[in-house]
Amino acid sequence: MNISDFNLVGRMDQIDGVLYLGAIEATEDPEELRRADITTILSVISDEMEAKDRIGGIRYHWIQADDSPHEDLLTHFPEAYDIIDKCVVSGTGILVHCVAERQKTYEEIHALVQCRRPIIWPNHGFVAQLGLWEGMGF
Q1: H helices then E strands: how many in the chain?
Q2: 103, 117, 100: which is closest to 24 by C-alpha?
Q3: CB crowding 11-50: b at 16 or more within 10 Å, else e
């Protein structure tokens, strides 16, 4: 990471259509969320966001997980897929985030995502589990 990467911290980036990736800080900016027509936030973090920190008019989904290579994320893929797919089908914006400025994807779309959000660096445990999920036919 070089100094020019630091201006991306706290932002969210549109990956494709209604799908946005960002850091947890992006959930704290109601104006930016409204401009992007975000109606759903999918948090992949260890602690659920407190009700007092939630923004009205946004649906929140929480997958309890740490951003760690040893975290079992494979069991959460179907749930995350369903949440994202509902937003894609309905044409409503969704922000997917974890705590760190690293977002998750698989090798097939990694280049696209990295082009849109250059600071991503998925941990090897997550990438391995995505490979398993793909091998299961998803």
Answers
A1: 4, 5
A2: 100
A3: bbbebeebbbbbbbebbebeebbeebebbbbbbbbeeebe
Cα separation of the two ends of the chain: 32
Residue whose token pair is 């911290």: 9
Query: pLDDT band for position 119 (50/70/90)?
Result: confident
pLDDT tens for 71-85 read 888 899 899 999 999
Residue 100 vs residue 88, higher pLDDT: 88
Distances (CA, A) of 14 to 11, 17, 84, 129: 10, 7, 14, 24
Taking CA atoms, 51 is separated from 48, 59, 131, in Å, by 9, 11, 35
Question: pTM above the 0.90 mark?
Answer: no
Q: All domains of the chain, ordered by start, with CATH?
A: 3-135 (3.90.190.10)
CA 77 to chain centre: 12
DSSP 14: E
Helices marked H in 74-121 — which ranges? 77-90, 107-116
Share the mean pLDDT of the chain: 80
